[in-house]
Protein: Mg2+/Co2+ transporter
Organism: Hansschlegelia quercus
Amino acid sequence: MICGFRNDASGATVRIDWDQVDSAVAAAPDAFVWLHLDVSDVRVQRWLSDQPSLSRETKALLLGTENHVPLRVVGDAAMGVVSDLHHDFDDDPSAVGALRVFFDERRLITARRHPLQAVDRLRRTVERGRCELRPIPMIAALLHHLADAFITLVHEATVDLDAIEAAILDDAGEGAADLGRVRRQLARLRRHLGPQRLALGALGARPPAWASSEDSATLRDAVSRIDGVGHDLDLAQERARQLQDERAAALAEITNRNLYVLSIFTAVFLPMTLVTGVFGMNVGGLPGLNDPSGFFWTMVLMAATGGATLVVLKISRIF
């Protein structure tokens, strides 16, 4: 077990150890308990499997590996998988992990296999006494911490996009690798946050029956903040897409300009090439073959044809 908390007789928050879990769960009808579990631990897996108060569906969710189970109300409880960011120890801090959540009026059980940011911030918040130990306030606090974690990445991506935009304006050939990295990161975040926004919106609209009107309003505020983060993420992703289109258009313009210059050179040298081809034929009767000044007049003819081509192109306003 990573951590556990319960309410004592006076309503104060008390931390519990692994050997106190069974007694805390047994007292759940008269108090609230939060268990944060590491389901990669065999002892935790065995304990969850042996819990008679948990349904088979709940056990399958907490012990499973499916990461796309939306948070939904089932009877008097709610359960599902919430996307959370990996804790930035050694891994990529933008990597997204799965936090498995089950809660009813007296219990909150969260489970994960890798260290995650938002739920760890929730643990510190509870330890400092800044969160009421009840299900809806704790879920709302978790959603606020999720929003903080995601908005940090969105802000960093926005700063990167500012730098990429400046680099593209200076030189369209720059910024390709950074832009691709940011677009991949935003797409990965949106792939997880998009479905989560819809599920949380449904939960905020239809909370469990035991939730009070005040708790429902608290939950809706937290859900609206997640939705706002999703909106900012959509804007950042759209901006990244526009920068990609702008860069592609600038590169296409550079390519077209280079091809235009090359076409002008080709048009100028084509008549000159024709002259050299004619005078390069090894047949009798070529003019100037025995004339000492033949080479000079050939060069004059080549220059004249090139100059005439330039005049024609200029008159035609091709350049």
